[in-house]
Design goal:
- The protein is α+β, with helices and mostly antiparallel strands.
- It has a domain at 46-190: 3-Layer(aba) Sandwich (NADH Oxidase).
- The chain has 12 helices and 4 strands.
- The protein has helices at residues 4-12, 25-31, 46-57, 76-84, 106-114, 124-147, 162-168, 198-201, 212-226, 237-240, 248-255, 264-270; strands spanning 68-73, 97-104, 151-152, 175-184.
- The protein has a 4-stranded antiparallel beta sheet with strand order 1-2-4-3.
- The chain is globular.
- The termini are far apart.
- The protein binds flavin mononucleotide.
- The site of flavin mononucleotide has 11 residues, from loops.
- Residues 34-35, 37, 89, 153-157, 179, 193 line the site of flavin mononucleotide.
Length: 276
């Protein structure tokens, strides 16, 4: 069994306060998880995929409404069409399987019609529930896949070219992608990325971000010491330049200083999904 202290050090870059007596295979897998962006030339057995999809469907789902769908793409030509939409991530094409996790508010609308009931919930709450359902299913899939040695990486970039992507997958009204997920056998081990300290993310009894600046500055330093950001990973260098020390907080605030996918709400509306 790996050393819990070391695993928490890897996750936070801090001396942890945690009890080793509860360490087990599941916790070990969760603490050590990381995305995979390099896939070996090896197929993924249909039976294994079906087992992992059953794990995905075992996720909690709001009122058992099950407002999500999953599309499995194995055809190489279709995978190439998807990869062509995201030229900055060519490694996606190397995965034997490309999944898409979708919020699906269409199914119950159709059922309402079939069962002769009104449908009175085309709103932001339903959109949120469907998104959460799809995200939980995706994470359950990821956990199961990683437990057998597979690697995955959620891909929200599919939403950058959402019209084209929706056309490739023939998405009907009421169905929207939350993320793609290439799945395959890792060609590289990857690394555990460092997270914000619990002091920032976990609040006791009430919300309190009074120490945000101090804690994040310390996290920035720890993270930079372990994973200095190369020029290629620094965001919007045309506008902000390349820094010797580009910290996490510098980079994420650079990223969100420009709009990302701001046409998404309009696209949802065009697909019959209201956020009002
Ligand atoms: C909803 C979502 C969308 C993501 N989209 C992308 C993506 O388009 N491309 C990519 O390379 N990684 C993507 N990622 C992976 C994150 O970059 C990754 O989880 C993060 O850097 C932390 O690394 P870790 O998962 O190894 O801890 C996405 C992750 C999530 C949860």
């Amino acid at each position: 069994m790996p050393d819990l202290t070391q695993m928490l050090q890897d996750r936070y870059g801090l001396e942890p306060d945690a009890q080793a007596e509860y360490m087990n295979q599941t916790i070990m897998g969760l603490l050590g998880r990381r995305v995979c962006r390099a896939f070996a030339d090896r197929d993924l057995d249909e039976g294994l995929l079906n087992l992992l999809l059953a794990c995905a469907q075992s996720a909690p789902t709001k009122s058992n409404l099950q407002q999500y769908s999953i599309i499995v793409v194995r055809e190489k030509a279709k995978q190439k069409a998807i990869t062509d939409l995201i030229p900055s991530m060519p490694w996606i094409a190397d995965a034997p399987v490309f999944l898409t996790f979708l919020g699906d508010v269409r199914r119950i609308r159709r059922l309402a019609n079939l069962r002769s009931h009104d449908y009175a919930n085309n709103n932001a709450d339903t959109f949120m529930n469907a998104t959460v359902d799809a995200a939980l299913a995706m994470q359950m899939f990821i956990n199961a896949a990683e437990s057998v040695g597979l690697g995955c990486c959620p891909i929200s970039y599919v939403r950058n070219r959402i019209e084209d992507y929706a056309a490739i997958l023939k998405l009907p009204d009421g169905v929207f992608p939350i993320a793609g997920l290439p799945v395959g056998w890792p060609a590289q081990v990857g690394y555990v990325s460092m997270r914000l300290p619990q002091d920032i993310v976990v609040h006791q009894e009430r919300y309190d971000d009074g120490s945000l600046d101090i804690e994040v500055t310390a996290y920035d330093d720890r993270n930079h010491d372990r994973f200095p950001l190369s020029a290629g990973k620094q965001r919007h260098t045309g506008k902000y330049g390349v820094l010797e020390k580009c910290t996490w907080s510098e980079n994420v605030t650079r990223q969100l200083s420009l709009p990302e996918r701001d046409g998404f709400a309009a696209w949802l509306k065009s697909r019959g999904i209201d956020l009002g």
